[in-house]
Specification:
Layout (H helix, E strand, L loop, with lengths): L1 H27 L5 E4 L7 E4 L5 E3 L2 E4 L8 E9 L2 E9 L4 E8 L11 E5 L28 E10 L2 E6 L2 E7 L6 E9 L2 E10 L1
Antiparallel strand pairs: 1-13, 2-5, 3-4, 4-13, 5-12, 6-9, 6-13, 7-8, 7-12, 9-10, 10-11
Length: 201
């Protein structure tokens, strides 16, 4: 019995070590990345609009619209080619998105940016969560509501790819916007961003 217990304990320690190594390796993949925000402060972002953005419990949160119009956290820098990692929580009724290569910091929309959508209840689900609005539909649409999720977004020249929780949801080849700002949207419901990191060249 004692030998069996020791064997199980050794196995548990090996599994724990492997899991820790895996997490360390994943973190190591982004050791040289720039942290735009870790959720404790606004970091490299400033607010555009009037919603109630704040830092709360280690995340940047918005859950109330002041005048019914969307509001945004917009990056200080402009980026062309980059890899972007975003951790976010969305309520089931959240209307949000990650906007790429935005042309005007003061005027964010899916007309002058690429929008990677977070919108489980979008009336037309073709451009719902995981899609690139106006450019790449997603089907079947994945759901992000009610839990923490991650986006891995790559923008290289004309090619943009999106992964939601490790699953590929959109691929776009377009030369419409070659560089611009990054913006995080609150359009409705509750949205939280706790980590946004970028690797650019």
């Amino acid at each position: 019995m004692l030998a069996r217990f020791k064997g199980l304990l050794a196995l548990a320690l090996v599994i724990s070590a492997c899991t820790a190594a895996q997490h360390a390796a994943q973190a190591g993949d982004r050791t040289n990345w720039t942290v735009l925000t870790d959720g404790s402060t606004f970091g490299e972002f400033s607010t555009i609009g009037h919603d109630n953005w704040r830092s709360q419990d280690g995340a940047l949160v918005a859950d109330a619209s002041i005048n019914g119009a969307p509001s945004y956290l917009v990056s200080a820098g402009s980026y062309s080619d980059f890899d972007l990692y975003v951790e976010f929580y969305a309520s089931n009724d959240a209307n949000s998105g990650v906007f790429l290569r935005c042309q005007d910091r003061a005027d964010i929309s899916d007309l002058n940016c690429y929008e990677v959508n977070i919108f489980d209840q979008r009336p037309d689900p073709s451009y719902g969560t995981g899609a690139i609005v106006r450019h790449v539909e997603v089907g079947p649409m994945p759901k992000a509501g009610g839990r923490w999720n991650s986006f891995e977004i790559s923008a290289r020249g004309r090619d943009i790819t999106v992964k939601l929780n490790g699953r590929s949801t959109a691929r776009l080849r377009s030369g419409l916007f070659s560089s611009g700002f990054i913006a995080l949207q609150h359009g409705g419901g509750t949205i939280k961003f706790r980590r946004v990191e970028i690797s650019s060249n």
